Amino acid sequence: MHRWSVLFLTAALSVAAEIPQQWQAALERISARSLAGHVSFLASDALEGRDTPSKGLEVAAEYIASRFRAAGLEPAGDDGYFQTAPWIVREQPRRTVISLRGVGKVIRPAAAQTAVAADEAGRFDQSRCKVVELGPRPVTPGLAGAVIAAIVPANESRRELFRRYARLRRALAKNPPALLLLAEQKGVFSNRLRRPRLIDPAEPPREEFPAVAVNDASFAAELDAARRAGRRVELSIQWSEPHRRQVTLQNVAAVIRGRDPELRDTAVMLTAHYDHIGMKAQGEGDRIFNGANDDASGVAAMIEIAETLARLPQKPRRSILFVAFFGEERGSLGAKHYVRHPVFPLVATVADINLEHLGRTDSNEGPQLRRLAVTGFELSNVAETLQRAGRATGVTVYRHEKYSEPFFSRSDNMALAKKGVPAHSVSVTFFFPDYHGVGDHWDKIDYENMAAVTRTIALGVLELAESREAPRWNPENTKAEPYREAREEAAASER
Ligand SMILES: [Zn+2]
Question: How far is CA 170 from the centre of its chain?
Fold first, then answer.
């Protein structure tokens, strides 16, 4: 017997008494094997990384719905278990033509080397363009209404380049240019801009300037030479109307009704995102981002808890709402859609526990056995309930020194928190080897540990749903103020 097994046993025995009798059997039903079953399917190559939108994502949604159906849960969507989002996907224009008049020559990059992010067709003939470098500090001298070409340095990391790009866009937002062109030679921005853009037709489209990326070394070199010499350059750019198609995205939602005649109209939410980032467009070897830990693990735990609680002979006082969100990796799109179409009024939603990264224990900071971090730990008293549940199940529920605060805004819980719902994410690890890599495979997960933390979460949810007292944002914490105010606003608008 390993040392840690002895520790597990003593921990389990000394605290077993704290788990209410009627819930004990339900928690014991949560099994490592069952969790492995869910994760291995959701993170299989067959689902091709569950990009939003994709066939793999649809299959994952069907799987989650089928598990809810098998458990006999009440559907909570507008189409059975599906909360449908009829959205539009904006893709690349069919035609893009670019030419640059340099010293004694004209450069015409191939269409396959260009990408356009624009709402409509565009045409810039012989435009004089201002050439800048995509440097650490954005340079924007009097560029309103102009065509700006930014030279992308070839030796910076993707991360740093995206940071600089975000900074430049922010700086340009006040005096938007007519067009921002990125001249690069490694395809970082052309790959990004080529990605389909998801648009909710019910939301007013965001006003922003068009961006074009050109991945062509001689094009970038010519622009850069002109910039250094202070020479004028003339650019000609044209693209046709971007192609649009309709798509139906879906959150997957089910409810267990509470037993209390009044409190059953309020709900505790348990959520996780079932999308991931899809596949690499090209390259040798493994191209599938399986997203086992991120976040098939969260979805698997949610399914397992739903199946378990559905069997409780006596339901808790409040209702429990399970939602698997689409599009987290594309900017919490599913969670944002949910808060515009909530199943329970947001003011009657007493808490959300959002599940992320529950499977891997091999954190970049070392092994994380029987540990569960809560984001935004001190912002509300939800973490206290989870901590109690952890003591009863032998799991340390804690505030991560470095990540609990920044990660509060890095997942779907934030969309709910912004509307005033005490909403937090819980994770075993934040960063782990294979994070957003092709190696995030189902067989690297510690399922015994995952079962232990899943029991902790299940008990926490049960206690929140059983308590007559609803969780609240911390009145003494100034960082909780915007969420407290959102809660008060939501309550006022209900009256
Ligand atoms: Zn995630």
Answer: 22
Q: Measure 107 CA to ligand 1 centroid, in angstroms.
A: 42
Task: Give the distance (Å) from ligand 1 centre to CA of residue 228.
Answer: 43
How remote is the CA of residue 129 from the centroid of ligand 1, in Å? 40
| Per-residue pLDDT reduced to its tens digit, 49-81 | 999 999 999 999 999 999 999 999 999 999 999
Spatial strand order of the sheet with 234-239 comes to 106-107, 96-101, 234-239, 122-133, 147-151, 179-184, 211-215, 114-117
Measure 436 CA to ligand 1 centroid, in angstroms.
9
How many A from CA of 319 to the centre of ligand 1?
25
Under 8 Å between Cβ of 107 and 219: yes
Alpha carbon separation from 11 to 3, 5, 18, 30, 431 (Å, rounded): 13, 10, 12, 18, 27
What is the CATH architecture of 95-239?
Answer: 3-Layer(bba) Sandwich (3.50)
pLDDT band at 2 (very low <50, low <70, confident <90, very high): very low
Q: Which CATH superfamily is domain 3-89+246-494 in?
A: Zn peptidases (3.40.630.10)
Q: Report the first-to-last Cα separation within the chain, whole angstroms.
A: 60
- The one-letter code for the residue type at 180 is L
Q: How many whole angstroms from 329 Cα to the centroid of ligand 1?
A: 7
DSSP secondary structure string for all residues of 177-231: -SEEEEEESS-HHHHHHHS-EEE-TTSPPPP---EEEEE-HHHHHHHHHHHHHT-
Nearest to 306 by CA among 21, 34, 82, 22: 34
pTM comes to 0.88
CA of 408 to the centre of ligand 1 (A): 12
Q: Give 383 Cα–ligand 1 centroid separation in angstroms.
A: 20
For the chain, which residues make up each domain, given as ranges?
3-89+246-494, 95-239
